[in-house]
Amino acid sequence: MTQTFKNYIGGKWQDASSGKTFPNYNPATGELLGYFPLSDQDDVHAAVTAARTAFEKWRLVPAPKRGEILYRVGELLIRHKEELARLMTQEMGKVLKETQGDVQEGIDMAYYMGGEGRRLFGYSVPVELPNKSGVAMRDPIGVVGCITPWNFPIAIPTWKMFPALVAGNTIVLKPAEDTPHCALRLVELLYEAGLPEGVVNIVFGPGNPTGEALIHHPDVAVISFTGSTETGRHVAVEAAQSLKRVSLEMGGKNAVIVMEDADLDLAVEGILWSAYGTSGQRCTACSRLLVHRSVQEALLEKLVPRIERLRLGNGLDEQTDVGPLINEKQLQKVHAYTEIGQAEGATLVTGGEITRGGDLAKGHFYRPTLFKHVRPDMRIAQEEIFGPTLSVIAIDSLEEAIAVNNNIKYGLSSAIYTQNINRVQQATRDLATGIIYINSGTTGAEIQFPFGGTRGTGNGHREAGLAGLDVFTEWKVVYNDYSGRLQKAQIDE
C-alpha cells in the first residue's frame, strides 16, 4: 500500500487542512513513492505560528547547547548515510555515489555549524572615550522560511537550516515537491537529536500556494531561497514588500576554459564530471567549454568518446554513470534547447536524444549532449539549460576567454586549465564569478568557504562558511560607559 505522509508542525504530524495531496515519483522508473500534503495558506500559518512561539525559548538556549544538537545530528547523518543516499537516488535520480556525497555535505555542515555554537564571532574594538567599552554581537532574527530545490535535497536544506539554528532562529522548511521525503527524513533526524518541538516545522507543496504563503507571511523575518533566477526575482520582489531579509541562490551558466598549454587528459576528466554529473542538474554544472582553437580538435578527440561511453540508468545500479532528469517537464525543456541549438546553427556532435528504450522506458533519460561551432551569443550559450548539454566555444586568447566567460547574466563558477602561473593569476583576478577553480572542474564546493555568485546568480549573500551566518543574524552593538558622567562621542568639549 502506498504511504501518505504528513506535515510536521509544532511537534505534531498533520494532514493538509484541505485534505489534498500530491504524488511523488521515482524519475528513473516511474514508480509511485508516496503521497504528500498539498499545503495551503492555513498550513503555512500554523507552521509559522509554531515557529514564532518556539523562537522565544530557542533564542535563549545557550549557543553551545544549540551547537551540541547539531553535533548529534551529524552523528545521526553518518549512521543513516546509506539509507538517506538510497532514498535520495530513488526520489531524485542521481547515482548513489553522488547522493552519498550529498549526505556528506550535510554531515560536514552539521559539524562546522555545531562548532559555531562556541564562537558566533562578534568583535570588540577600542572606543574613543575614556572609561567606556564597546562590543558588536550577533542576534537571531526570528522565523526563517527555507525554500529548497530538488537537486541537492539533503545538502541545501542543511546549508540553510544549520546556521539559522545555531544562531538561535526557528524554521519553516518548504522543500521542492519533487523530493519531499528526503527533507522529511532530515527533519525527523533533527528531532531525534534533541531539537525542541516547534523549532523546525516542515510543510509540503508547490511554489503556489505553499511557497507564496511563506514569503507573504508577516511573521516570517527571513526567506532563504535556492532555485531559478526567474523565481528568485519574484521571491525578492514579493518579500521586499514586508521588508523581509532575502537570501537568493539562483542560476548558473558556468564555463571551463582550456588553454593551449593545458593537460588535456586532466581537462577531460574535469569536464566530464562537471558537465554530466547529476545529469547536468547543478547550479555549478559546466555548460560552456571555452577551448583554445589550437587544441580544440585534440580535446574533442579525447572528450567525445568518453561522453558516448557514459552509461544511462537507475542510479542504484553501480554500473550507471548518468541518472535521469528529475521529471518530464525538465526532459522536454532540455530537448527543446537541443532543437534551439540546431536552429541557431550549432553542430550537434553527440547526444541530443530522449532515451526511452528497454530498462529506461519509464524514466526521464536524456543522452549526454555536446555542441560545437557555438557562438557566445547563442541561446544555448547564454541561457541555463539545467541538463546534460555542453556547448563548445572556440577562443584565441585568455583575454577573449575571460570576456566570453563574463558576458553572461550569471556569475557562479568558472574554471581554467593551464600550466602558466601568470595566466592563473590573471584569471583569478578577472573572472567575475563567486567560485574559481584552477585545473579542476566547476563543481565541488566545500562547506567551510562561502558559496554563491554574482549578477543573476544571487543577491549578494553567501551560504556556508562564516558568511553563512550573516543572513540569519542581526548585528547588535552594546556601549558600556562606566565614567559616571555624560560623554558625547564626536563632540568637542
Task: Explain the overall architecture.
- The chain is of the alpha/beta class and 493 residues long.
- The protein has two domains: 7-250 and 458-477, 3-Layer(aba) Sandwich (Aldehyde Dehydrogenase, Chain A, domain 1), CATH 3.40.605; 254-438, Aldehyde Dehydrogenase, Chain A, domain 2 (3-Layer(aba) Sandwich).
- Helix content is 37%, strand content 22%.
- The protein is built from 14 helices and 23 strands.
- It has helices spanning 41-58, 63-79, 81-92, 96-116, 155-166, 180-192, 207-216, 229-240, 264-276, 296-308, 328-344, 379-382, 398-406, 421-430, and strands at residues 7-9, 12-14, 21-25, 32-37, 123-124, 132-140, 143-147, 170-174, 200-202, 220-226, 245-249, 254-258, 286-292, 347-350, 354-355, 365-366, 369-372, 389-395, 410-411, 413-417, 435-438, 454-455, 473-481.
- The strands form seven sheets. A seven-stranded mixed β-sheet has the order 14-17-18-13-12-20-21, sandwiched between helices. It has a five-stranded parallel β-sheet with strand order 9-8-7-10-11, sandwiched between helices. Strands 5-6-23 form a three-stranded antiparallel β-sheet, with no helix packed on it.
- Helix 9 (264-276) crosses helix 10.
- The longest helix is centred in the first third of the chain and has 21 residues, at 96-116.
- The radius of gyration is 24 Å and the shape is globular.
- The N and C termini lie far apart (82 Å).
- The relative contact order is 0.14.
- The model has no long low-confidence stretch (mean pLDDT 97).
